[in-house]
Amino acid sequence: MSQKLKAAITSVGGYVPETKLTNFDLEKLVDTNDEWIRSRTGISERRILREPGKASSDMAVKAIEEILRKKNLDPLDIDCIICATVTPDMVFPATANIIGDKIGAKNAFGFDLGAACSGFLFALTTGASFVEAGRYKKVIVVGVDKMSSIVDYTDRATCIIFGDGAGAVLLEPSADENGFQDAILKSDGSGRAYLHLKAGGSLKPASVETVMAREHYAFQDGQPVFKFAVTGMADVSAELLEKHNLTGDDIAWLVPHQANLRIIDATANRVGLPKEKVMINIEKYGNTTAATIPLCLWEWESQLKKGDNLILAAFGGGFTWGAAWVKWAY
Ligand code: UT7
Predict the structure, then answer these.
(1) How many independent structural domains does the chain possess?
(2) Tens digit of pLDDT for each residue in 12-65?
(3) Of these four, 157, 173, 177, 251, which has the most CB atoms within 10 Å of its CB?
(4) What pLDDT shows up at residue 229?
(5) pTM above 0.90, yes or no
C-alpha cells in the first residue's frame, strides 16, 4: 500500500515590531498595574507597529522574506499563500493578495482565513491538505495581526492583552513520514457574544454613531472566554493525544496559543507536560492572535529536532479551537 503523502513544515519566519508597550506604559493609559497584568495574564510587554502607513501585510512580508532568504526560495515558485488574520489591511481584497504582490509571488493564488486566535491552526490544516492532496508543492501559511489597530487603549479589559506580530511557515511535500499528522478543529458560533468586533461589517456598517460608541474596537467579556478557553484548549489537546495513543512522554513540545499563562498551564497539565516542554513567550509579545503559534515555532526553531512530536493548540474568537500534531521535519 502506498503511504499517504505528508506535508512538512520546512522553514519558519517571524517578525515583531521594535516598539515595546510595557505594563508600565499601560499604567499611564488606564487604571491598571504591572502586578495585576503579570499575575492574571503572564504578560510584561507587547510589540506595537507604530509606523504610519504600515499594516498587517508589512509584518507578514517580513516574516515570509526570512523564509525566502533561509530557503533561497524564488517567490515565483510559491503556489499558494494563506493568510490567517482578523486585522486585514482592508476589508477586501484579501491581505494574502497584497502580500503576494509585495513579495513578488506572481504565480501564487491566495486568500485570507478568519478564525481569530485559531486562525494559524485552521490555515495550517488547510495548507497541509493542499500539499497532501498532491495539488500544490509550496504553500506559505502566515498568521499575522496588527491588534493595535482594533484595540481600545481606554479599555483596561482588552488593551493589556494584545500585541502585534507575524509568523509564517513554508509547507512542502515531506520526504519521509515527518510532517503534519492530524488535527482536530472545532467551532461554536454561539461564542460570538463574548468576543467580537461590533461594527464595520455588514451587520453594522461604519457610521458616525458606531465610531462615537467605540464599536470598531475588539470587545471581550474575559471571564466566560477564559472558562471556555481553559476547557476547550485542554480537552481538544487531550482528545488528539488519545486518538493517536500518545501520552505526554511522547511529546517534545506543546505549542500553545498565547492568550493567558493560566490557560497555557491548564493545557500543559491536562496533557501531562512539564513546563520545560511548553513554548511560552507571552511575557514578551502578549496575545498576537493569529501570530502566536508561528512566533513560538520561529523562536524555538533552533531547539527543534527532526522527528520531534509537537502539539499545537489554540482557542479564540468564534469560538474556534483545535489542536494539531506535527512531526518536525528538519
Ligand atoms: O485569545 C483569544 C481568547 N481570549 C482569551 O483566552 C482570554 C481569556 N480571558 C482572560 O484571559 C481573562 O479573563 C482576562 C485576563 C481578560 C481577565 O482576567 P480575569 O482574572 O478574568 O479578571 P476579571 O475580568 O474577572 O476581573 C477581576 C477584577 C475585576 O475587579 P472586581 O470586579 O473584582 O473589583 C476587574 O474590574 O480585576 C479588574 N480588572 C483589572 N484590574 C486591573 C480587569 N481588568 C483589569 C486591569 N487592571 N487591566
Answers:
(1) 2
(2) 999 999 999 999 999 999 999 999 999 999 999 999 999 999 999 999 999 999
(3) 251
(4) 96
(5) yes
Rounded Cα distance between 58 and 98, Å, is: 9
* Residue 16 Cβ < 6 Å to ligand 1: no
C-alpha cell at 13: 519566519
From the CA of 289, give the closest atom in ligand 1: 1
Does the C-beta of 223 come closer than 6 Å to ligand 1? yes
User: What is the SS3 string spanning 266-322?
Assistant: HHHHHCCCCHHHECCCHHHHCECHHHHHHHHHHHHHHHCCCCCEEEEEEEECCCEEE
Tell me, in angstroms, the distance from the centre of ligand 1 to residue 103's CA: 40
Residue 260 near ligand 1, beta carbon < 6 Å: yes
Q: Using the 3D structure, point to which of 112, 146, 177 is the last residue of a domain.
A: 177
Alpha helices in the chain (DSSP H): 23-27, 34-41, 56-71, 95-103, 119-132, 156-159, 208-212, 222-243, 261-270, 282-285, 292-300
Question: Does 117 sit in the ligand 1 pocket, CB within 6 Å?
Answer: yes
What is the extent of the structural domain holding 101?
7-177
Q: Count other C-beta atoms under 10 Å from residue 259's C-beta.
A: 27
Which tens digits make up the pLDDT trace of 230-251? Answer: 999 999 999 999 999 999 999 9
- Per the structure block, which three cell numbers stand in for 302? 533552533
Task: For residue 55, tell me if it sits in a domain.
Answer: yes
Find out whether the beta carbon of 154 lies less than 6 Å from any atom of ligand 1.
Answer: no
Q: Both 239 and 313 in a single domain?
A: yes
Task: Compute, in angstroms, the gap from residue 275 CA to the centroid of ligand 1.
Answer: 24
CA of 222 to the centre of ligand 1 (A): 6
Which residue carries 489554540 as its cell? 314
* Ligand 1 atom nearest 259 alpha carbon: 1
